[in-house]
Amino acid sequence: MEEDGERKVLVEAQQVPSLGYRAYPVLTRETGRIATENEISVSPTCLENRYYRIELNERGQITALLDKRHKRQVLQPGAAGNVLQAFEDKPMDFDAWDIEIYYQEKMRPVDQLVEATVEENGPLRGVLRLVWRFLDSQIVQRLTIYRSSPRIDFKTEANWQEKQILLKAAFPVAVRATRATYEIQFGNVERPTHLQPAAPRRGWRESAVMPEAYALNYPPEADLARQNGSGALRKRFSFARLDSDHVILETVKKAEDEDAWIVRLYEAKQYRNPAIHLDFGRPIRKAAACNLMEEEERPADFEGHRLIFSINPYQIRTFKVWF
């Protein structure tokens, strides 16, 4: 594939260990090519994979989004999604910060689509490039679907030249929810939705929203290395791995004042657990619970390469570990 004028290799890296790495062999063209069935279809008016069928109109707006797994339309009947909207933004005070409730009274749709180009059409992902013009500004969006992930990406870049005008994207989904949960650092907060739709009815705790968000914000890094037959590194390795999906390992860093490592975790789903296991890739010599200033408070329990601790709802735990 080509990206930003460079030829690159797109790899679907499966089963990469937590906070670790995995080596994949790279086959040359002479070695042979493994045939891959293309399950992705992309055109200027329709994108489709095993998860969704997305239909667009001549303005680049989504007119139908069929969720194949749940056999339902995601958008409200008769409504369009991914609709760019420009609002007049003239607050009473603090122009750079405040957004007044009355901003919604003056809205103009951004619907002058000047380009719809298929950039990728499988087999691992499909990308449709959309370009809109609005006054003196240009908005470029890459609408992306994947072969093995139900995530839909809207990578949007705006060369925004307007003053006192807000730009938003509207997705009127067919979901009834009176409250929504918003993530904040080391936790979340629940607020009324008012006019805005929110998360699916089954609840954010049971959904894959959090791991998908981390996958989006912290994608794995890749590097091409020559094979070293005498190398000592394993083909796959995990520095740290948790046995619970409601605890997030948020920080791993060197201690400020000594030869130790700091790990910071938090409980993210309002659950209580008396025995969380954090497995490291090497035996632990010593471990201590500490505060945010890395000051030791008491010894921590561990067995071999496993740190064992309890956690309460929304609690932050910090440990100092020696290997």
Summarize the structure.
By secondary structure, the chain is mainly beta. The protein has one helix at residues 209-217, and strands spanning 2-3, 6-7, 20-22, 41-43, 46-48, 52-56, 62-67, 72-73, 83-88, 107-109, 112-121, 125-134, 137-146, 153-159, 165-170, 179-184, 187-192, 236-238, 240-242, 247-254, 261-267, 273-280, 286-290, 296-299, 301-303, 306-311, 316-322.
Layout of secondary structure:
Elements: E1 2-3, E2 6-7, E3 20-22, E4 41-43, E5 46-48, E6 52-56, E7 62-67, E8 72-73, E9 83-88, E10 107-109, E11 112-121, E12 125-134, E13 137-146, E14 153-159, E15 165-170, E16 179-184, E17 187-192, H1 209-217, E18 236-238, E19 240-242, E20 247-254, E21 261-267, E22 273-280, E23 286-290, E24 296-299, E25 301-303, E26 306-311, E27 316-322
Antiparallel strand pairs: 1-2, 3-18, 4-5, 5-6, 6-7, 7-8, 9-10, 9-15, 11-12, 12-13, 13-14, 16-17, 19-22, 20-21, 21-27, 22-26, 23-24, 23-27, 25-26
Outline the structure in words:
With 323 residues, the protein is an all-beta fold. Among the domains are: 135 residues, Distorted Sandwich (Beta-galactosidase, Chain A, domain 5), CATH 2.70.98; 87 residues, Immunoglobulin-like. Helices cover 3% and strands 45% of the residues. The protein contains one helix and 27 strands. A hairpin with a 2-residue loop joins strand 25 and strand 26.
Percent range for β-strand residues:
35-45%
Please provide the count of β strands.
27
Shape descriptor reads globular
N-to-C terminal Cα separation, in Å?
42 Å
Strand order of the largest sheet: 4-5-6-7-8
CATH class category of the domain at 39-173: Mainly Beta
Q: Examine the secondary-structure arrangement and name the CATH architecture of the domain at 39-173.
A: Distorted Sandwich
Task: Give the fraction of residues assigned to helices.
Answer: under 10%
Order of helices and strands: EEEEEEEEEEEEEEEEEHEEEEEEEEEE
CATH topology of the domain at 39-173: Beta-galactosidase, Chain A, domain 5
Structural class by sheet pairing and helices: mainly beta
CATH superfamily grouping of the domain at 39-173: Golgi alpha-mannosidase II, domain 4
**SS field, number of helical segments:** 1
- Please, what is the average pLDDT? 90
Radius of gyration: 24 Å
Please mark out the parts with pLDDT under 50 across 5 or more consecutive residues, or reply none: 196-201
The main sheet comes to: 5 strands, antiparallel
